[in-house]
Recover the amino acids of this structure.
């Protein structure tokens, strides 16, 4: 038991710091100012967003760049509603985020209060792992302990804690001892029989294929691609799994599961193993995976193992640990020759050409980016045609020592406005590495004011703005469905003048050579640079 006379708001800040939090994103308001009383004393940095949606995406970007939970403070009612889109995105993409909000002390008998909602806690619960109201100081710190214990031991997803306004300012008397790690649910450990069975299946298969997803956290010196190639195992990754296998591995098909005829490749395999992936609609863009052979699933989430893909064998556990044991069991096995490097190269070449033909002009810009940026660069992209091509065609290097993904895209929830604030969060988290934001001309305007945050903090942040003057993907979908394109063109501002008004740098290169120069300059600058790129740049 610990005794303290500090206000609860101060105790929350101290508890966050004790759990390793360094940065809090948010916007102070009349209802949550007590959360701010103890920030400085606790040694926490606060980043003032221009909108709660921006604060949420910054927390998301920070979490993805570090693997640590991103934390945001918001006010009662509209503040929480505004951050629910980022919470939904974090839930879909398994990102650890903690949102702490104030709430009204009483809502049943008292109507017409400022920021009042019918069910604030329930609203947040729709887009996160759980949403709970702290019932006093001890409850608040217990919920914080629970959140961080689950971030460390379970599938990472956003959580919401709300605290009554009156409680935030009340002195805390006696608190229970902090929750220890022993109270947390631990990642399941598969038994030796699971490893042995999978090893046997891989040894017997002639054309085995493994799919790696974003749920994989590689161990140091565990090179998936090298081990797969040694045994003649072909591979795909999901978009979130990019960088887990070197792009130039001869039997690696890349992040191309969304290509329609990847289904034929999967149908030709005589064993398919999917590790750390939901195999969701946004991974496949079709209803079925397309396999005909046995499907083995490995995941820490039991729900994934029981989904529509009907795995023949389901292994509940950490994918990297399972594969490490399986490959130790396969040591000495002869290389299979069921797959050929020529077969893989032909498919990848064909799919790259299809991507370029589907959305012309983007692949050459991807190549120009790759020629300029260092291998450790972290990307944050928005829902834009540029990203739809780049997440498939841009060759990602192997992940660094941290084992974290280097290209972050709002794949699951699919929101607009993600890239710029998420990249701000990522750059704050990793000032030592280059960070680039990629947005479309329409989606950029969703969270455009957050450019002011990047200027205010002096962040070196190139922002690639793909400007085709419309919602081109939606226009193409309407045309494909024989619907007259409607509501797909909006008048854009002068983006160069807009950047100047915020105090940012800007560039408008006319060709690929000028683009490479502009990007190199932006990476070296001590301010954000908005680089406007149109389809005409590729000639």
């Amino acid at each position: 038991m610990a005794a303290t006379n500090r206000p609860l708001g101060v105790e929350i800040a101290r508890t966050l710091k004790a759990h390793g939090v360094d940065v809090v994103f948010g916007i102070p308001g009349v209802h949550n100012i007590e959360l701010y009383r103890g920030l400085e004393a606790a040694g926490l940095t606060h980043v003032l967003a221009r909108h709660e949606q921006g604060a949420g995406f910054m927390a998301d970007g920070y979490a993805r760049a570090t693997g640590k939970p991103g934390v945001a403070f918001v006010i009662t009612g509209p503040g929480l509603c505004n951050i629910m889109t980022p919470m939904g995105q974090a839930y879909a993409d398994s990102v650890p985020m903690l949102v702490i909000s104030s709430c009204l002390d009483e809502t049943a008998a008292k109507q017409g209060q400022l920021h009042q909602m019918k069910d604030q806690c329930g609203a947040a619960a729709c887009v996160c792992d759980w949403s709970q109201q702290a019932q006093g100081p001890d409850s608040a710190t217990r919920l914080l302990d629970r959140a961080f214990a689950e971030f460390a031991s379970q599938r990472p997803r956003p959580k919401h804690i709300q605290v009554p306004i009156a409680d935030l300012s009340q002195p805390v008397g006696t608190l229970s001892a902090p929750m220890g790690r022993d109270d947390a649910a631990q990642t399941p450990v598969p038994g030796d029989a699971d490893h042995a069975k999978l090893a046997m299946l891989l040894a017997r298969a002639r054309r085995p294929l493994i799919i790696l997803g974003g749920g994989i956290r590689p161990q140091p010196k565990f090179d998936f691609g090298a081990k797969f190639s040694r045994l003649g195992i072909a591979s795909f990754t999901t978009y979130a799994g990019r960088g887990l296998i070197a792009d130039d591995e001869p039997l690696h098909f890349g992040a191309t599961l969304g290509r329609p005829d990847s289904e034929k490749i999967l149908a030709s395999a005589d064993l398919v193993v999917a590790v750390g992936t939901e195999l969701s609609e946004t991974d496949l863009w079709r209803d079925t995976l397309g396999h005909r052979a046995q499907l083995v699933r490995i995941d820490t989430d039991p729900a994934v193992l029981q989904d529509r893909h009907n795995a023949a064998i389901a292994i509940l556990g950490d994918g990297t640990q399972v594969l490490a044991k399986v490959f130790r069991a396969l040591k000495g096995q002869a290389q299979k020759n069921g797959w050929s490097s020529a077969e893989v190269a032909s498919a990848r070449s064909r799919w790259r050409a299809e991507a370029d033909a589907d959305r012309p002009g983007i692949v050459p810009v991807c190549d120009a980016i790759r020629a300029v940026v260092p291998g450790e660069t972290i990307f944050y992209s928005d829902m834009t045609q540029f990203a739809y091509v780049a997440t498939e065609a841009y060759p990602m290097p192997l992940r660094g020592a941290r084992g974290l993904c280097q290209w972050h895209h709002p794949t699951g929830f699919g929101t607009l406005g993600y890239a710029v604030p998420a990249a701000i969060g990522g750059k704050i988290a990793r000032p030592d590495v280059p960070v680039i934001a990629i947005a479309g001309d329409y989606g950029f305007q969703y969270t455009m004011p957050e450019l002011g945050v990047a200027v205010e903090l002096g962040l070196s942040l190139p922002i690639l703005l793909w400007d085709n003057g419309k919602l081109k993907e939606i226009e193409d979908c309407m045309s494909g469905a024989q619907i007259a394109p409607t509501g797909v063109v909006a008048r854009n501002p002068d983006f160069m003048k807009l950047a100047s008004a915020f105090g940012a740098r800007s560039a408008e290169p006319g060709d690929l050579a000028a683009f490479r120069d502009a990007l190199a300059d932006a990476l070296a600058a001590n301010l954000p640079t908005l680089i406007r790129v149109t389809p005409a740049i590729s000639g």
Remarks:
- The domain at 359-538 is CATH 3.40.50.970 (Rossmann fold).
- The longest strand covers residues 97-103.
- The chain has 21 helices and 19 strands.
